[in-house]
Automatic annotation (TrEMBL):
Residues 42-265 form the Aminoglycoside phosphotransferase domain. One of its GO terms (molecular function) is homoserine kinase activity. GO terms for biological process: threonine biosynthetic process. It comes from the Bacteria. Pfam families: APH. Belongs to the pseudomonas-type ThrB family. InterPro entries: Aminoglycoside_PTrfase, Kinase-like_dom_sf, Pseudomonas-type_ThrB. This is Phosphotransferase. Gene3D superfamilies: 3.90.1200.10.
């Protein structure tokens, strides 16, 4: 699709927020098309919810699902000290804005968020203190999630056994493309089955299961005056709090992971056997990321390097009930 269609959609969307005069600067196109909007007094992030490829399920583009993400952001902004991007309602008092493309009659869904200051720390490893702060941040998110009364018609996808099964099956084309050996895939399947069995024992009580960010890696939080600020809640959904932690832990060095748990536990108590459970979810998070990248040729080398490592270093220890999280990256 032509880039200029997105310029048109952006301008048409901004008009529905009463922002006619504003500098509109394209940022990126991944899960959505994003623009930085600058007016004389404020900055905003405009999102056109149209992913760059079929890597994304269409569930994320449904207006009710988008609105639910915005409702949680608004609640976090109102109820907590966590600095998040506050969503903006349009002139019709709605969170999600519809724009009709003139030529095709296609509907595009857009949302507008207040800009927050901070920088990414992409090229350096987290220090123990930063890992501690990150654990603290996730605990605050989970604390809010476990106490928040969900609005009516709140809809977000779930990170459960079905999600793991779907991710594992989505990884299979990598075997056909010879990025992964059939033997390694089989070994991963044994691990995935054990993780599914573990999930079935957990239940979904509100102390273990609720709304989670699900994608809190270094690209999705900002550092501002030593304060961590979570961004990009586009993949948030219902899931296990320990899965959310495992999802973040995969991007931290093993040596700082104990600090992450320490930070978390200053606010929230962890369940019994939390390390063993987190390690199962760590494997689930890895499978999820790998399956997401299967259709992206730029990630193929990463997949063929990662899987043998996971199969050799993580899976045997997990299957034998030995802990690997503080030793293996």
């Amino acid at each position: 699709m032509q880039d200029n269609i997105y310029d048109y959609i952006a301008k048409a969307a901004l008009a529905q927020y009463g922002i006619a005069q504003g500098e509109c600067c394209f940022l990126a196109h991944s899960g959505s098309v994003t623009f930085c909007i600058k007016t004389q007094t404020k900055k905003f992030l405009l999102r056109i919810h149209r992913p760059i490829s079929m890597l994304y399920s269409d569930v994320w583009q449904r207006p009710q699902v988008i609105e639910s993400e915005l409702l949680w952001l608004a609640a976090l902004r109102n109820d907590t000290e966590i600095v998040v991007q506050e969503p903006v309602k349009n002139l019709q008092d709605k969170w999600v804005t519809q724009v009709l493309a003139d030529e095709t009659g296609e509907v595009f869904y857009c949302s507008l968020l207040h800009w927050i200051d901070g920088g990414n720390i992409l090229n350096a490893q987290r220090t123990p203190q930063q890992a501690y702060q990150l654990g603290l941040l996730l605990a605050r998110l989970h604390q809010h999630s476990s106490q928040w009364q969900l609005p009516q018609n709140f809809v977000r996808p779930a990170y459960d056994q079905n999600r793991l099964q779907a991710a594992f099956e989505a990884l299979y084309p990598a075997v056909l493309q010879e990025l992964i050996s059939a033997e390694d895939y089989k070994t991963l399947e044994v691990a995935a089955c054990q993780v599914q069995g573990m999930i079935e024992t957990l239940g979904q009580e509100q102390n273990v299961w609720g709304l989670i960010h699900a994608d809190l890696h270094e690209g999705n939080y900002l550092l501002h005056n030593e304060e961590f600020r979570p961004i990009d809640f586009a993949l948030c959904g219902f899931g296990y709090y320990l899965y959310d932690m495992a999802s973040s832990l995969q991007y931290l060095l093993p040596t700082v992971r104990p600090s992450f748990f320490e930070g978390y536990q200053t606010i929230r108590k962890l369940p019994e056997h939390y390390l063993q459970i987190t390690e199962g979810f760590f494997l689930m998070a890895l499978i999820d990321v790998l399956s997401f990248h299967v259709n992206n040729p730029q990630e193929h080398q990463g997949i063929s390097e990662s899987v043998p490592y996971i199969v050799k270093e993580h899976v045997p220890m997990y299957l034998e009930g030995e802990s690997f999280l503080f030793e293996k990256y």
